[in-house]
Amino acid sequence: MAVVINDTCINCGACIDECPVEAIVDEDDNPTGEEIYYVYEDKCVECVGHFDTPACAESCPTEGCIVWGEAKDGMTLHADRADAGTPCIDE
Ligand code: SF4
Ligand code: SF4
């Protein structure tokens, strides 16, 4: 799938410009209507081919805010990804 931003997001904006494929939108463009940032799963490539670890999670100041999503067929998946719901970065 992709990575997922959870509801601990504080809308700081640190992640959005770090994404190499522009998969992240801010709270104003979140299609779920939640007042947090959002990752489009059809765009996110888990930073494969760009960085060793998800750049958004590296830039995020909120511990555990960006987690691995459900793995689905046809998605670009990081080789070292953990189970869905697990933070992408071990703080
Ligand atoms: S993991 Fe990489 S590609 Fe996916 S949203 Fe984060 S920065 Fe973008
Ligand atoms: S860097 Fe983290 S806290 Fe800041 S907007 Fe992105 S997901 Fe939210």
Can you walk through the features of this model?
The chain has 91 residues and is largely without helices or strands. It has a single domain (1-91), classed as Alpha-Beta Plaits, CATH 3.30.70.20. It has one helix at residues 55-59; strands at 3-5, 24-25, 38-39, 66-68. The strands form 2 sheets. Strands 1-4 form a two-stranded antiparallel ribbon. The protein has a two-stranded antiparallel sheet with strand order 2-3. Bound molecules: iron/sulfur cluster (2 copies). Residues 5, 9-15, 37, 59-60, 62, 65-66 line the site of one iron/sulfur cluster. Residues 2-3, 18-21, 23-24, 39, 44-47, 54-56 line the site of one iron/sulfur cluster.
Quick take:
The chain is 5% helix and 11% strand.
Offer a few descriptive terms.
91 residues, little secondary structure, Alpha-Beta Plaits, two-stranded antiparallel ribbon, globular, binds iron/sulfur cluster
Record the SSE blueprint:
Layout: E1 3-5, E2 24-25, E3 38-39, H1 55-59, E4 66-68
Antiparallel strand pairs: 1-4, 2-3
Bound molecules: iron/sulfur cluster (2 copies).
One iron/sulfur cluster (SF4) binds at residues 5, 9-15, 37, 59-60, 62, 65-66.
Q: Determine and state the CATH class.
A: Alpha Beta
Spatial extent as radius of gyration: 12 Å
Query: What class would the helix/strand composition place it in?
Result: little secondary structure
Q: What is the overall pLDDT average?
A: 95
Indicate how many domains the architecture comprises.
1
**Gap between N and C termini:** 22 Å
What ligands does this structure carry? iron/sulfur cluster
Strand order of the largest sheet: 1-4
CATH-derived architecture: 2-Layer Sandwich
Major beta sheet summary: 2 strands, antiparallel
